[in-house]
Amino acid sequence: MSGDRTKVRAKGLERRFGHLLAVAGVSFEVYEGEVFGLLGPNGAGKTTLVRMLSGVLTPTTGDATVDGASVVREPERVKARIGYATQEASVYPFLTVRENLEFRAAMYLEGPPALDAVEDALARFDLGGVADRRAGELSGGWRQRLSLAQAVVHRPRVAFLDEPTTGLDPLARRAVWDLVYAEAARGMSALVTTHYMDEAERCHRVGLIYGGRRVALGTPQELKAAVAARYRFYRVPGADPADWRGRAGVVDAWQRGGAVRIVLEPDAPAPANATPEEPTMEDVFVLKIREEDAHALV
Ligand SMILES: Nc1ncnc2c1ncn2[C@@H]1O[C@H](COP(=O)(O)OP(=O)(O)O)[C@@H](O)[C@H]1O
Ligand SMILES: [Mg+2]
Q1: What's the pTM value of the predicted model, to 2 decimals?
Q2: What structural domains and CATH numbers belong to the chain?
Q3: Taking every annotated instance into account, which residue ranges of this chain make up the domain ABC transporter (predicted)?
Q4: Tens of pLDDT, residues 267-297
Q5: CA neighbor of 67 nearest in space, from 78, 56, 53
Q6: Distance from Cα 269 to the centre of ligand 1, integer Å
């Protein structure tokens, strides 16, 4: 088992809540040392998926193995092996940073190894300077840093981080991604959920999820190349995207700075004054969702 470099293997994971199909047959893999981004808008099913992968929510159908253990048959084993940072950065506000880490470490380790793990996490996450501060006094960025440190204090092989950057400023977001990469560099696999499209660029590979379904999977470069093959992107002078919407061959148009960005069908002629542009992850996301919605209508 230890020679297996696939650390997460989700196979047809599905979860219903009453009539709602929150996650619909999602399959993907995460490899050793990989930073895998699970991207999708609010309500897409990211948290439901992560809860299933973490062994805390039983799938309606399908299964996943996480570091060799089945989430359906061995959820307790899965929970013992992974690191999990929930969306609500669950730190105890009245405990100090060190006490929060000690509390979490005690779930997995005891005695000197537990204390070593805490000191090590304080160092790795640069939390030494605030070790004796109450968690409730930390800023959002530092609270997230603590939440991340807690999730991996026992050095799991796999960590699930649910929206670790939501609500943070750009510098704090970057710090969180640097810390995730530092953990991945020692071989940990990280599955990180986010609804910030630009954060896809920071991942080795990305799965886009929408309406509970996986609508795209690949490296950011692959996903952008796929939309570049299907659409053309241009910047045109002007201040009114409505001039463009609905014209033959125009898929979408929106204002960007002092110009209008337009997306054309591949065979549509380029308008005069148009400057070609490369697709962004935001284009990937918007166009994939548009395609899904169009399918849903037929
Ligand atoms: N415990 C639950 N009971 C009923 N519906 C739920 C429950 N958890 C999530 N949902 C619904 O499932 C869908 C996906 O939710 P969620 O996984 O939280 O999405 P995301 O994390 O991508 O925002 C939403 O429509 C949400 O309202
Ligand atoms: Mg969520």
Answers
A1: 0.93
A2: 6-222 (3.40.50.300), 229-297 (no CATH)
A3: 8-236
A4: 999 998 999 999 999 899 889 988 888 887 6
A5: 78
A6: 43
